[in-house]
Amino acid sequence: MSARTTRPHEIVERALALSRADGCVVIADERSTANLRWAGNALTTNGVTRGRTLTVIATVDGKEGTASGVVSRSAVTADELEPLVRAAEAAARGAGPAEDAQPLVTGVEPSPDFTDAPAETSSAVFADFAPALGESFARARAGGRELYGFANHELVSSYLGTSTGLRLRHDQPTGTLELNAKSPDRTRSAWAGRATRDFKDVDPAALDAELAVRLGWAERRTQLPAGRYETLLPPTAVADLLIYQTWSASARDAAEGRTVFSRPGGGTRVGDRLSALPLTLRSDPHAPGLESAPFVLAHSSGGDTSVFDNGLPLTATDWIREGTLERLTTTRHSAALTGRPVAPAIDNLVLDGGTDRSLEEMVAGTERGLLLTCLWYIREVDPATLLLTGLTRDGVYLVENGEVTGEVNNFRFNESPVDLLGRATEAGRTERTLPREWGDWFTRAAMPPLRVPDFNMSSVSQGV
Question: Does pTM top 0.90 for this prediction?
Answer without folding.
Answer: yes
